[in-house]
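Database export, one record per block. Field names are fixed; values are copied verbatim from the stored entry.
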Amino acid sequence: MDTPSPSSSSSSSPFDLVSSALGKYIPRGGAAAADASGAPDQTAARVRLHPNPAAGRQEQILGAVNLDRELRITRSNLDAPVFAGLDVVAGSPFVDLLPPWDVPTVTRRLRQVLETGEAHVARVQRLRRVDGSELVVSMSILSAAAPQEGLTVSLIAMARRLHLYAAETAIGTSLDIGETAQSLAESLLAWGDVAAIDLDFAVWTGEGVTEHGQGRIRLRRAALVPDRVWPEGYVTEGDDLPKDASHLLSQAIRRDDAAQAIVIPDRESIERVLGSPKLVRALVPSDRSAGVACIPLVLDGSPPVVLGVAEVWRRADRPFNDGELLDLQELVARTSHHVDLARQHQREHTQVLALQRRLLPRTGGDTVETASVYQPATPDSAGVGGDWVNSFPLPDGRTALVVGDVVGHGLGAAATMGQLSMEARALLSAGLAPDEVLEHLDKTVTMLDDAESGLAAGYSALGSTCCIAVYDPVSHRVALSSAGHLPPILVLPDGRAAPLAVRPHPGLGAEFALREPFGVHTFAAPPGSLLALYTDGLVEDPAVPIDEGIGRLADAVSTVHPWDVLEEAARWVVSGLSPQRGRDDVTLLLARMIGYRKGDTATWRLPARDDAAARARTLVSALLREWRTRDDTRDRVLLLVSELVTNAVRFARGPITVRLIRAGHGLLCEVGDTGNGRPRLGRGGLLDDGGRGLHVVHRLTARWGVRWTDTGKVVWAVVAR
């Protein structure tokens, strides 16, 4: 509704506009009674609810109250019979009409509209009558025609059937199970003084609930309204009900092997049914609560499954009538499936998040310090996405850093994410270069998206991105390949920070005509350098160009000092850059390069001659004596180097590179050559290409392997010290 200017006539003020509309909504022949109620049988401890379509209904009635800037009533138009009993007196505070626990919240809303002029529309509110009963209304707060006039509060007395429609519309707008339970409880409050939702613990955690699962009687309070200070011992939101209480409620609503609603009409019956003061303290909200209706949340099926129970409590002077009980049953029945949808979403969210956490790096090894942050998308998105980061030491002493972003959200994206992540780790550990790994991932995404396994499942991973960096702690260089991913940020030890100039690529699973070879970008990363790998959720903002977002990240990472704790620095960077309500996951991996100390490595280049093995033994023996290596370890290393160099001379060309690294609790030996054969153990322990057997190497080492380079291959082996 447009607010008239101060010069407008009083006849166009919000108060007068609402008042002029009253005649359209007041029913001819008089309004329905304010709160018709029938007295149920007060003698039974439990009353089975049954439908009564003939129960009386109210019409919707509109009214208006004008307030000054002190929130006092100046005039009102509440002549409809439905408002009878409200003590609306000119000059009295409007908050006198409210229950005490609602006064702070409503006062804050009133003053907010007074200060900003922005209307607050359609708040479900309870008003107190002089006889102690309450009236449920839809309350809207509007600025008056002129600022000095204060506020106009419009009130719509809500009919039961209208409230059912409004409640059903409001419930289920969120896939969060706590918010769904809270919405249901707030809607049920129209029929009582206190409303609570108790869910099976398996529902709360997102697990599957079956008929057999009902034996695990454990209820957790998922929602409780209104928000107030509760007596000591009372079960509040997030608490588990006592075992006896869970058992009692479960048995009560599952009478005759069928889920059905019950009502306990008075305090005496409540105490008799609960049986102990402890349960009374746990379940009864106050001394004034005299009756309760318990309505099961039932998921239709064969057989039906009970998800939990809704409780509505009332005072003794407001017994439930048949029409109200029918409405309660109808509302809970209509909205139980929303609770189950939230349960399914909770289950999927938990599973995907667990997978995300499982893929987070545990350590970067001795030569790289790593820290990562994963921040899921906000709850109003489609769920946890397919972002992942990983860092792990490779068997040959190098360290791999991987970041990926799988298209989409939910279990489909999570499954693809897990498959790509583990495949990348396996291939890197097998010695493949980053560009070769991306070629395999590209084929995997294409196969996953074929008509049978991908598109038929309703999910496509085409366009997913990945960036792989491999750090050599001896040369202090990084080999990096990217498949459509945003460029990493490199911060040099002097503080200079900039995105790497990585050649763009269309991403994984691109159309054949768009496919290009994956390039390898090699750059120096001296000790103390910081490398930042991330996903687009951290830098994308619709309001700014993507380059500006990357620049902001570079500026933020450049402020990380060498003495900063890397985990704290990563969280600080994410908190400063990530959007408050982003619709994409945010992932950041920071890697601080350490490398090996100069005295812990040695490299020699030898010509491929017959005396190369003897020359290598002499050089390695002198170094091991300098490192004070044990005699038995030195003998094993010398034999190992002799075997590897001899094989390189026999089956390769060009110079031979020998590298020895003192790392942790072992010695890493590497022998590189220009050959492209693949050494592997045969049945008899002989090399397939005719060389000496690798069974000697295999028995001397803790592990060994091969990796390929641009000029040949490197055979590496680790000997325990």
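Remark 1: Residues 164 and 330 are 8 Å apart (CA to CA).
Remark 2: The chain has a mean pLDDT of 77.
End of record.
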